[in-house]
Design brief:
Order of helices and strands: EHEEEEEHEEEEEEHEE
InterPro entries: AlkB-like (IPR027450), AlkB-like_sf (IPR037151), ALKBH3 (IPR032854), Oxoglu/Fe-dep_dioxygenase_dom (IPR005123)
Helix content: 10-25%
Number of strands: 14
Organism: Salinivibrio proteolyticus
Distance between the termini: 32 Å
Protein name: Alpha-ketoglutarate-dependent dioxygenase AlkB
CATH class: Mainly Beta
Bound molecules: 2-oxoglutaric acid, manganese (II) ion
Strand order of the largest sheet: 1-12-9-14-7-4
CATH architecture: Sandwich
CATH topology: Jelly Rolls
Number of helices: 3
Structural class: alpha+beta
Keywords: Dioxygenase, Oxidoreductase
Shape: globular
GO molecular function: dioxygenase activity
Length: 190
């Protein structure tokens, strides 16, 4: 991909580990559905989420306090750090309950992520299509994110490409996605 650094490992997590993690996270995570303001209107997000780690997360005027790391998430963080040679201090969990839950086109370019963030995404459960679209050329790329896949976005990816997880008409079960991020709180930035 031009002007991007993307690494896709479809069978990254061993199947038994992926199965155990999917079951545990699906059942035990305190999932929340939050409102988002779009074009001056407030609607519910088409997915559930949970936020863990060392720093709060601010988006669309909402600040989410972090939940403390769990043993499962710390273990997964260590494995993701070993695979990517990067460090992470927070993780966003998204639960797509079925094919009608989705995430629209966006960049992960919030100020607290800094310039050229490395974001590591682990997928569990139902396979879903993940799309990239170049902001200028409109060129598209597609990856299938299946149970146990690791997708790493780094370098200039968030500057030049948007990404999305589209709805699907197919009958699909639940999918959980975890994006590990390094957040620098605003108080620590100049
Ligand atoms: O569910 C996914 O694979 C993508 C999630 C995402 O882009 C995000 O949380 O910012
Ligand atoms: Mn994103």
């Amino acid at each position: 991909m031009p002007q991007a650094t993307v690494n896709w490992q479809p069978d990254w997590l061993p199947l038994a580990d992926a199965d155990n993690l999917m079951a545990a996270l699906h059942q035990h995570t305190p999932w929340q559905q939050l409102p988002i303001s779009m074009f001056g209107r407030t609607v519910m997000q088409p997915r559930l989420l949970a936020w863990y780690g060392d720093h709060a997360y601010t988006y669309s005027g909402l600040t989410l306090s972090p939940r403390p790391w769990t043993p499962e998430l710390l273990d997964l963080k260590a494995r993701v750090e070993a695979a990517t040679h990067a460090r992470f201090n927070t993780v966003l969990l998204n639960l797509y309950r079925d094919g009608s839950d989705y995430m629209g086109w966006h960049k992960d370019d919030e100020a607290e992520l800094g310039e050229q963030p490395t974001i590591a995404s682990v997928s569990l459960g139902a396979s879903r299509r993940f799309l990239f679209r170049h902001t200028q050329s409109k060129e598209k790329r597609e990856f299938l994110l299946s149970h146990g896949a690791l997708l790493v976005m780094a370098g200039q990816t968030q500057t030049y490409w948007q990404h999305a997880l589209p709805k699907t008409q197919k009958t699909v079960g639940a999918r959980i996605n975890l994006t590990f991020r390094w957040i620098t709180p605003s108080s620590a930035r100049e």
